[in-house]
């Protein structure tokens, strides 16, 4: 059979970022895939060599907008590993709170985009609406919606005010019921099962071979999480579960992310309630010559920073490795052999649900019935129930 | 195996190839090895010790090019960094990509950004830099100089 | 004001283009579409193709690889096409000004109508920027 090359990108309506995929297809089946990068390359590793240790945290914050906590976190840990020092307890807790807040909003963002990729724009709206609440919380805690600038070598830049804590906890609690509904909607939905189960499977062996990270690896049954394997921050003082599923398909990746959001909420609440008193900054003056490694668990997997210092106030070499660098090549294992319609789902990863915006009121044409948000959700749930029965679930 | 057993095992098995072991802290060990032995040692750590390949980082030192291969053994919470020093100007080393897929992209990246040639890499071409980037210019090298005369580096105020 | 511009201002469709950004501005643009801000109320819609768009929202520091595509996309856009630079990177390249891969600022490559500063600008700022753009055109 003849082969056709299908280009996706670099500026494709499905992708928010430029990336160029070339799919080689035989009929409907994908036989080869290649990714061309470089549309986002800004030479940050080189730029970092011209910044002082205090400034590098701001630079690495701008590597990725969604991982704007993970990179400074790993970077400061790398600098602290050069000396080596341990940061004060209170700083550890604050760092953990910010990192987990980022995990929640990142997973929600992904959930929404995944719905958007599938054509379920309602999910996109719903998840992003929830995400706004988390961004509000982050704004209360750090002063900004994204790019929190909380991290510095030796501690954190800003303290969390005691009077803010109750309000923040209330706000976090208020999103839990909606999140529960989203979770049920995704995990029980038969249409979703049909669309995502058994698709884009990454086997355990492949996950190890590619050194896959984060939810991508955990969905394939590889119990790998830096927070557990090499505890940092306050993670070893908190009881939380690592979510691992076995199938490695798109559905499992979604499930891992959703369940992780709940764990993150648990962690944040614990940290806020048990925030120890004390200093938040070591006020480091000089960084000695040497080399250090910092790795932490970002929402997408392990972020890895290697820094070498020669005793001056600037790094000689700063190596940054984002989790996607290891996760993206796994597409070679997951997309090949699938049909082209599924390829986009696997490339984009998915996680949809049904719902409608809360503040909408619908007037039906017949009669004078007025529906509010809650009733619409109920209607939608009833329809899913019907579907499930029809499809034999 | 415990941390000590793993380290002793590596030291005994590769006594010939190891130049220096730097036991930095409880979680970090740096092992310098001969460049010719990289596939043997890295293959053992990845395959037999079930380590995860974190990443490799190339560093341009004045008289040699250094590559650090970072591996994590998760069960014992140990990060092993294999250090090799390649004398300038012949920058060549065996590729790890045939052993495990995870090394594929980072070797392509080091090839373009630092100009290190990886022998036996299945697909050694550019990863990040644009097509118009001149051949033989490697931005992460210490002697990199701006080549583009049309570039504007001030804010215009 | 030309008839074309007058028609355009009723419901400007936007196309979003990232030229090597950190993704934050792109997310804030998408945020404008979601329930809290909901710019669709004003007739603004994210167009999937440049050929349907009236306004080009550009983020990012214009790296070498995407500049080629940026020029091509601008040529393809139906004129009149308004260009909005969003975020510090597309205004002046911000902290990436000395990067080897970001040689030129955006306004040296294509003409820009409105600049929205911020790293990232809040969705409110983006909406305010677009409103100012509309006012500016109306005055012409």
Stretches with pLDDT under 50, minimum 5 residues of chain A = 350-367
| Succession of helices and strands of chain C | HEHEEHEHEH
CATH architecture of the largest domain in chain A: Orthogonal Bundle
Number of domains of chain A: 2
CATH classification class of chain C:
Alpha Beta
Of all chain pairs, the largest interface belongs to: A-C, 36 and 39 residues
Radius of gyration of chain A: 22 Å
Helix content of chain C: 25-40%
Let me know the CATH homologous superfamily of the largest domain in chain A. Cytochrome-c3 Hydrogenase, chain B
Number of domains of chain C: 1
Q: What is the CATH class designation of the largest domain in chain A?
A: Mainly Alpha
General description of the model:
The complex is a heterotrimer of chains A (393), B (157) and C (140). Chain A is an alpha+beta fold and 393 residues long. Helix content of chain A is 48%, strand content 14%. Chain A has helices at residues 44-48, 53-61, 70-82, 89-118, 121-142, 162-188, 190-196, 204-209, 214-218, 226-229, 250-273, 323-327, 331-335, 340-348, 373-390; strands at residues 3-8, 20-26, 29-36, 151-152, 155-156, 290-298, 301-309, 315-321, 362-363, 370-371. Chain A has a three-stranded antiparallel beta sheet with strand order 1-2-3. Chain A is globular. Chain B has a domain at 3-96: NADH:ubiquinone oxidoreductase Nqo5 subunit (Beta Polymerase, domain 2, 2-Layer Sandwich). A five-stranded mixed beta sheet of chain B has the order 1-2-5-4-3, covered by helices on one side. Chain B is elongated. The model of chain B has no long low-confidence stretch (mean pLDDT 90). Chain C has a single domain, classed as Rossmann fold, CATH 3.40.50.12280. Chain C is 38% helix and 15% strand. Chain C has helices at 3-10, 24-33, 64-76, 88-92, 123-139; strands spanning 13-18, 45-46, 55-59, 82-86, 114-116. The model of chain C has no long low-confidence stretch (mean pLDDT 87). The chains are: A alpha+beta (393), B alpha/beta (157), C alpha/beta (140). The interface between A and C is large, with 36 and 39 residues.
């Amino acid at each position: 059979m003849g082969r056709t090359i299908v280009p996706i990108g670099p500026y494709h309506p499905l992708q928010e970022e430029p990336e160029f995929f070339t799919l080689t297809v035989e009929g409907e089946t994908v036989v080869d895939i290649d990714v061309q990068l470089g549309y986002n390359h800004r030479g940050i590793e080189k730029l970092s060599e011209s910044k002082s240790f205090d400034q590098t945290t701001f630079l690495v914050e701008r590597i990725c907008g969604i991982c704007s906590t993970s990179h400074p976190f790993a970077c400061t840990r790398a600098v602290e590993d050069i000396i080596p020092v341990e940061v004060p307890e209170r700083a550890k807790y604050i760092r953990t709170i910010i990192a987990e807040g980022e995990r929640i909003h990142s997973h929600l963002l992904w959930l929404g985009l995944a719905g958007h990729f599938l054509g379920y724009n309602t999910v996109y709206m719903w998840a992003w609406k929830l995400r706004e609440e988390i961004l509000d919380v982050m704004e209360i805690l750090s002063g900004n919606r994204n790019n929190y600038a909380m991290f510095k070598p030796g501690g954190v830049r800003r303290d969390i005010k005691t009077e803010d804590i109750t309000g923040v906890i209330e706000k976090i609690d208020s999103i839990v019921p909606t999140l529960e509904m989203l979770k049920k909607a995704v995990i029980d939905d038969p249409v979703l099962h049909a669309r995502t189960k058994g698709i884009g499977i990454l086997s355990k062996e492949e996950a190890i071979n590619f050194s896959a990270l984060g939810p991508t690896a955990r969905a394939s049954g590889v119990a790998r999480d830096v927070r557990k394997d090499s505890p940092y921050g306050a993670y070893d003082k908190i009881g939380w579960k690592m979510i691992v599923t076995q199938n490695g398909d798109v559905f499992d990746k979604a499930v891992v992310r959703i369940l992780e959001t709940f764990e993150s909420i648990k962690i944040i609440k614990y940290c806020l309630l048990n925030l120890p008193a004390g200093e938040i900054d070591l006020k480091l003056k000089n960084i000695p010559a040497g080399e250090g490694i910092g790795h932490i668990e970002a929402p997408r997997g392990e972020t890895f920073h290697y820094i070498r210092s020669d005793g001056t106030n600037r790094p000689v070499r700063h190596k940054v490795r984002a989790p996607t660098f290891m996760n993206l090549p796994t597409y070679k294992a997951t997309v090949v052999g699938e049909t082209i319609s599924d390829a986009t789902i696997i490339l984009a990863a998915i996680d949809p649900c049904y719902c409608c915006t809360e503040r909408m009121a619908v007037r039906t044409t017949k009669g004078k019935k007025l529906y509010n948000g809650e009733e619409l959700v109920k209607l939608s749930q009833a329809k899913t129930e019907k579907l499930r029965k029809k499809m034999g679930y | 195996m415990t941390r000590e057993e793993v380290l002793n095992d590596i030291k005994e098995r590769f006594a010939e190839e190891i130049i220096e072991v730097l036991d930095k802290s409880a979680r970090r060990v740096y092992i310098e090895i001969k460049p010719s032995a990289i596939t043997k040692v890295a293959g053992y750590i990845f395959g037999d010790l079930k380590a995860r390949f974190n990443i490799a980082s190339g560093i341009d030192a004045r008289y040699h090019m250094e590559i650090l291969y970072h591996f994590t053994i998760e069960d014992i919470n140990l990060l092993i960094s294999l250090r090799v020093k390649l004398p300038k100007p012949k920058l060549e080393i065996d590729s790890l990509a045939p052993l495990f897929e995870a090394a594929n992209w980072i070797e392509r990246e080091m090839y373009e950004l630092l100009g290190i040639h990886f022998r036996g890499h299945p697909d050694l071409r550019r990863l990040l830099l644009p097509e118009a980037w001149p051949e033989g210019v490697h931005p992460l090298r210490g002697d990199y100089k701006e080549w583009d005369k049309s570039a504007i580096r001030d804010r215009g105020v | 004001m030309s008839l074309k511009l007058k028609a355009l201002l009723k419901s400007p469709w936007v196309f979003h283009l990232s030229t090597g950004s950190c993704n934050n501005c792109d997310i804030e643009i998408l945020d404008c579409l979601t329930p809290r801000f909901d710019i669709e109320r004003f007739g603004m819609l994210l167009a999937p193709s440049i050929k349907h768009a009236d306004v080009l929202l550009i983020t990012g520091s214009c790296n070498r690889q995407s500049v080629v595509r940026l020029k091509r996309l601008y040529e393809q856009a139906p004129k009149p096409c308004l260009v909005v630079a969003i975020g510090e990177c597309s205004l002046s390249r911000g902290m990436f000004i000395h990067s080897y891969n970001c040689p030129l600022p955006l306004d040296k490559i294509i003409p820009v109508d409105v600049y929205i500063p911020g790293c990232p600008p809040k969705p409110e700022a983006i909406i305010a920027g677009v409103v100012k753009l509309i006012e500016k055109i109306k005055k012409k």
